[in-house]
């Protein structure tokens, strides 16, 4: 079953790959600022507006308050269904 990522505020619907949210954005031609790709630097921090994800690391670089406020680290987050990501810094490449 294919899941989809709706990227806001662009309003673009992208297929989720078998990898992370960041990898899916890149595969669809979108760039999101990132650095470490292991959940610690927080460069890719954005908001999960709807849906849910699982993390590839036990405790990504988010505080409890940030988790409760639906912040997301796309570099280590894998969608568990359709999601909506609010990532205003994401830009179409090319």
Low-confidence stretches: none
Helix content: 10-25%
Total beta-strand segments: 9
- Mean pLDDT value: 94
Main sheet: strands, sense, barrel: 5 strands, mixed
The Rg value, from CA coordinates, equals: 12 Å
Fraction in beta strands:
25-35%
Overall SS class: mainly beta
The number of helical elements comes to: 2
What string, H for helix and E for strand, traces the elements in order? EEHEEEHEEEE
- Apparent shape: globular
Can you list the strand order of the major beta sheet? 2-1-8-4-6
Distance between the termini: 29 Å
Can you give me a brief rundown of this structure?
The chain is mostly beta strands. The chain is built from 2 helices and 9 strands, in the order E-E-H-E-E-E-H-E-E-E-E. It is 13% helix and 32% strand.
Describe it for me?
There is one protein chain. The protein has 94 residues and is mainly beta. Helices cover 13% and strands 32% of the residues. It has helices at residues 21-27, 64-68, and strands at residues 4-8, 12-15, 30-31, 46-50, 53-55, 71-72, 77-79, 83-86, 91-92. A hairpin with a 3-residue loop joins strand 1 (4-8) and strand 2 (12-15). The mean pLDDT is 94.
What are the key terms here?
94 residues; 5-stranded mixed β-sheet; 13% helix; globular; mainly beta
What is the strand and helix layout of this fold?
Blueprint lengths: L3 E5 L3 E4 L5 H7 L2 E2 L14 E5 L2 E3 L8 H5 L2 E2 L4 E3 L3 E4 L4 E2 L2
């Amino acid at each position: 079953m294919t899941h989809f990522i709706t990227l806001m505020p662009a309003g673009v619907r992208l297929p989720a790959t078998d990898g992370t949210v960041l990898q899916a954005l890149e595969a669809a031609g979108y760039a999101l600022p990132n650095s470490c790709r292991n959940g610690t630097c927080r460069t890719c921090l954005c908001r999960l507006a709807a849906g849910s994800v699982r993390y590839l690391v036990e405790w990504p670089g988010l505080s409890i308050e940030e988790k409760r406020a639906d912040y997301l680290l796309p570099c280590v987050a894998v969608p568990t269904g359709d999601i909506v990501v609010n990532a205003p810094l994401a830009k179409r490449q090319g």
